[in-house]
Amino acid sequence: MRGGPAEARRYGGIVSQGDGQEGGGGGWVVVATFEQDFRVTWSESHIRHIDQGRTVQLILDRSSGCGFASKAKYMFGRVSMKIKLVPGDSAGTVTAFYMNSDTDSVRDELDFEFLGNRSGQPYTVQTNVYAHGKGDREQRVNLWFDPSADFHTYTILWNHKHIVFSVDDFPIRVYKNNEARGVPYPRMQAMGVYSTLWEADNWATRGGLEKIDWSKAPFNAYYKDFDIEGCSVPGPASCASNPSNWWEGAAYQELSAIEARKYRWVRINHVVYDYCQDKSRFPVTPPECLAGI
Questions:
Q1: Positive or negative, the Cα torsion across 231, 236, 241, 246?
Q2: Is 179 a catalytic residue?
Q3: Could you confirm whether 113 is annotated as catalytic?
Q4: How confident is the model over 195-212, as pLDDT tens digits?
Q5: What is the CA angle 11-248-223, rounded to 5?
C-alpha cells in the first residue's frame, strides 16, 4: 500500500477529501475510534471493543454471527483494514470485508471473502466484483501465509481506471474499467464499508462438503487500523470527479513495475479459481478477461 496518512493506519480512522493531496491534507485526517466511524449492523452482543475502540473482535457461535458498517458512503478512493482471521479449524465460516452500494437490482459491490478451512489447509480468499447488479466474477487465491497468526493489511483501491485488491503490498486482483467494451464498471454509486463474520457451511469450504465443527466455537476474527480515504457522500458533488484526488494520480492508474511482478507471482502460484477460465460457466470468455492488467 503506497502512501496514506500514518495516523490513520496506526490508530484507525477516516480521512475525508481535503485539498486533493494524499492523506487528505489541510487537517482532514481524523484519528477516530471504531465507535465514531462505524455502526454495528448485526448482533451487537457478538462484537467486542478492544484497545480503547481501536480493535474490534467479531464472534460467531451457534446463536449468531455479526457485522459492522461505516456510517458514511464513499465515491472512489482507498479502504484498508488489518484483519486477523479465525484460527484453527474454521471450516464453514466466512469472514468478509467489502464495499457495497446497499442497493438492490443495481447493486455495486467489491468483496473480500475469507473462506474458512480445516486445520492445516491454506486459507482461501475469494474476491468478487458487482457492477450495475451483475456479479459472478469470482476469483480465489490461496494465501501464502497463516492469516490467523497475525494481522495483515487488506486493501481495495478504487478509481476511474481500475480496482485493485491487495494483500499487504501484493496486488492479488486487478479489475479494469472496460466500459468501452460494454462491461459495466462501478462508478455511479457511492459504497459503504462493511465487515461480517457468519456461517456459510453450505458453500464456503470445498463447496459445502466441510461443515462447521461447532465444538470449536466460538470463532473469533479481529479488525484494527480502519483506514478510509475517499469522497464522503453526502459531500461536495465535485469531489468524485476531481482528477486532482491522489488516488486518480498517474502512480495509481496502473501497477508499478514492482507491483506488476508481485501480481504475476500471485497469479502464477496462488490462484485456485478464476471465472475467466471456467468454460463450463462461461463458454465464451467474458470481454473483461481479455484486457490483462
A1: negative
A2: no
A3: yes
A4: 999 988 876 677 777 789
A5: 25
